[in-house]
Design a protein that fits this description.
The complex is a heterodimer of chains A (212) and B (219). Chain A has 212 residues and is an alpha+beta fold. Chain A is 22% helix and 42% strand. Chain A contains four helices and twelve strands. Chain B starts with a helix and ends in a 7-residue tail after the last strand. Chain B has a 13-stranded antiparallel β-sheet with strand order 1-7-8-9-10-11-12-13-2-3-4-5-6, covered by helices on one side. In chain B, a hairpin with a 2-residue loop joins strand 2 and strand 3. The chains are: A alpha+beta (212), B mainly beta (219).
């Protein structure tokens, strides 16, 4: 069960790094330029340091649950996701290690000891490197307006289909980085993550990725 | 010759049954015959909504996330959802004031009948569902510090412990044949809800702890 909870979390992270005709957008017929540009930018990206704001929408709540934190990524396989408000939660991936710290407990998981974790790890890293759009189990639709590319991903993998209806990515046309990620569940409840204050290729200390 | 062992067995059974009857009176509580107190549930009619940081320890596995509880007046119910910190819903349940509950969603990995049923019955202890408001079987005693404790017994299966001026029960215990006794400890009520809740089980390695997350702004 723990693995599955981890998978749920990683599904969100996975979307992070990669992505209905939406109002105000027109369909993009030739997507090769976007794919090439995202691939090029991801190859040039060695590190990401960004704040994020997360909105959780649930049908029975009139209000959204807001949280915020910091995300750090260092090529090729280091990731730190830290929620700072209104709760604290830390997830660090570094090579074959995974460390999770909540307000109540800490856990270390060896990714190499589990083929499933290993596959998920590879998937995330591939996504970070911009390969998410090439994934065979995702059907994609591309849209645009004057300043944003909007990409919808529909999982065709049966495991993902149990949890996710659609993943939506908003990409800034200026720098081809993800500005917003929306994960829509089967019930249409969703999680929207907005990335702000992005710093690309700034040095991040190794101590940020210690998994213990 | 055949009747003797049967009689012995009956006697032993009777002794075991009476011995295991953990009635309030046997724990130093005395009956309050004239008492006619309204029942205060953990989340009562004035409650609106609350957010808890939550940890569920089941065997060797630990799950952390958030639990959101909200009263839904139009359904005459209370809705409870457990989501991961990253926002993925794990389970969502609704508890109706006129009795019963409904599971709206359970993640595939957790969707096992026994697990869902146990979570449902545990969380149901927190809400004013069914006939609890008609309970009149009350017992009282003074504890070591001289504090007056009221114990309300529901159908002989569930006990709700109240301190005199508390905003809700400070402890709930429920007898169970399969998993043994379930105990719920509730601390530091803040008007309409406790800021800390802990579920423990005598024969099942399942602990659920909830700590309120002060939420400055919901939107």
């Amino acid at each position: 069960m723990y693995k599955s909870l981890f998978l749920l979390t990683l599904i969100v992270l996975f979307g992070l790094f990669g992505q209905a005709q939406p109002s105000g957008f027109t369909i993009v017929s030739d997507t090769s330029y976007i794919r090439e540009k995202i691939d090029q930018i991801s190859r040039q990206t060695n590190s990401i340091n960004t704040d994020f704001i997360q909105e959780k929408e649930m049908s029975f709540l009139n209000e959204k649950i807001l949280s915020k934190g910091i995300l750090l990524y260092q090529k090729p396989d280091k990731l730190r996701l830290e929620y700072t408000s209104p709760f604290t939660y830390l997830l660090i991936m570094n090579g074959g290690g995974l460390f999770i710290k909540s307000s109540e407990s800490e856990m270390n998981i060896n990714l190499e000891s589990s083929s499933m974790f290993s596959e998920i790890n590879d998937m995330i890293i591939n996504s970070i490197q911009g390969k998410v759009l090439d994934m065979p189990d995702m059907k994609t639709s591309f849209y645009e307006n004057s300043d944003t590319f909007f990409i919808q991903l529909f999982p065709e993998n049966k495991e993902l289909q149990k949890y996710i209806k659609t993943i939506e990515l908003f990409i800034d046309k200026k720098d081809f980085t993800v500005t917003q990620l929306k994960i829509i569940e089967l019930s249409d409840d969703y999680t929207l993550i907005k990335f702000i204050n992005k710093k690309i290729n700034e040095e991040i200390p190794d101590s940020s990725f210690i998994t213990h | 010759m055949k009747k003797y062992p049967i009689a012995v067995l009956l006697l032993i059974s009777f002794a075991l049954l009476t011995g295991s009857c953990n009635t309030p009176r046997h724990q130093g509580f005395s009956k309050e015959p004239g008492l006619n107190l309204p029942f205060k549930a953990v989340f009562g009619h004035d409650f609106e909504k609350v957010l808890y940081g939550t940890e569920i320890v089941f065997g060797k596995k630990t799950f952390s996330g958030l639990i959101i509880i909200k009263q839904v007046p139009e359904h005459k119910s209370f809705r409870l959802a457990f989501v991961t910190e990253a926002g993925m819903r794990v389970f969502e349940m609704e508890f109706f004031k006129d009795g019963g509950s409904k599971v709206h969603y359970v993640s595939d990995f957790l969707n096992k009948k026994a697990v869902v049923s146990k979570l449902q019955s545990d969380f149901a202890l927190l809400f004013p569902v069914g006939k609890k408001e008609n309970i009149r079987h009350a017992y009282s005693k003074k504890d070591d510090t001289g504090t007056y404790i009221l114990r309300i017994n529901e159908n002989g299966e569930k006990d709700y412990y109240f301190a005199p001026s508390s905003d809700g029960p400070e402890k709930i215990s429920e007898k169970g044949f399969v998993y043994g006794k379930t105990s719920v400890f509730l601390n530091q009520y803040e008007s309409t809800f406790p800021t800390e809740i802990l579920f423990t089980h005598k024969l099942l390695k399942l602990n659920i702890s909830l700590k309120q997350i002060p939420y400055p702004k919901w939107n």
